């Protein structure tokens, strides 16, 4: 009986020094951060029907732009996200891509809306635009928190000796957000000041 207790104490002591508890803490932290990302994406998706309805009221508004927003929202909300998504790089990338398409479609919609003074004067549209901008900021904050938490988890999963614990308990590194247009961002912008004025 005493040997069994000693063996259990030895196991507990060895687990505390190998990062097991840190894996538990960081796994929960990544799930919590991911939930906040999803909440903010859902908040944005819920705004889209109101934005589309307001813009539809504008005569001659570009139908193709509206259609792309509606389709992008449908695609983004059709992806089933589960806790396993965090451990599946392919599903994670598919989700990220769909959200990126919705971001792009909404950006194009706002650019096109600039051409319609009546729409810019519409108080409901202005309120929705402010709400959308606030939501995009919240998404950015939530994503940054998730990125930092996953980075901490992944460093733990890859560092020695905690990588041994990761192997034993199947704690594989988690996928993280990536830059969608990395090649475009790394290309310096072209600046053209035109011909000098006389």
Characterization of this structure:
The chain is mostly helical and 198 residues long. It has a single domain, classed as LemA-like domain (de novo design (two linked rop proteins), Up-down Bundle). Helix 3 runs antiparallel to helix 4. The longest helix has 37 residues. The radius of gyration is 24 Å and the shape is elongated. The chain starts with a helix and ends in a 12-residue tail after the last helix.
- Low-pLDDT parts are 181-198
**Number of separate strands:** 0
Annotation field: number of helices: 8
| Structural class by SSE content | mainly alpha
Q: Strand-residue fraction?
A: under 5%
Overall average pLDDT? 84
CATH superfamily caption: LemA-like domain
Roughly how many Å apart are the termini?
98 Å
Query: What is the number of independent domains?
Result: 1
> Shape, please?
elongated
The CATH topology comes to de novo design (two linked rop proteins)
DSSP helix fraction: over 70%
Secondary-structure element order, as H and E?
A: HHHHHHHH
In angstroms, what is the radius of gyration?
24 Å
CATH level-1 class: Mainly Alpha
Question: How many strands, which pairing sense, and closed or not: the largest β-sheet?
Answer: none
């Amino acid at each position: 009986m005493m040997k069994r207790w000693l063996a259990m104490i030895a196991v507990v002591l060895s687990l505390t020094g190998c990062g097991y508890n840190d894996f538990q803490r960081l796994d929960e932290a990544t799930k919590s951060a991911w939930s906040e990302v999803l909440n903010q994406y859902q908040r944005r998706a819920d705004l889209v029907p109101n934005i589309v309805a307001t813009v539809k009221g504008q005569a001659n508004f570009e139908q193709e732009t509206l259609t792309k927003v509606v389709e992008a929202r449908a695609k983004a909300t059709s992806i089933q996200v589960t806790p396993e998504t965090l451990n599946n790089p392919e599903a994670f990338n598919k989700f990220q891509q769909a959200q990126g398409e919705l971001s792009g479609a909404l950006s194009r919609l706002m650019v096109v809306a600039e051409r319609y003074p009546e729409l810019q004067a519409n108080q409901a549209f202005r309120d929705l635009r402010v709400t959308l901008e606030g939501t995009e900021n919240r998404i950015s904050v939530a994503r940054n928190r998730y990125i930092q938490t996953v980075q901490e988890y992944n460093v733990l999963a890859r560092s020695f000796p905690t990588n041994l614990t990761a192997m034993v308990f199947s704690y594989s590194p988690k996928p993280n957000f990536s830059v969608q247009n990395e090649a475009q961002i790394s290309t310096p912008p072209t600046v053209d000041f035109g011909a000098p004025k006389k």
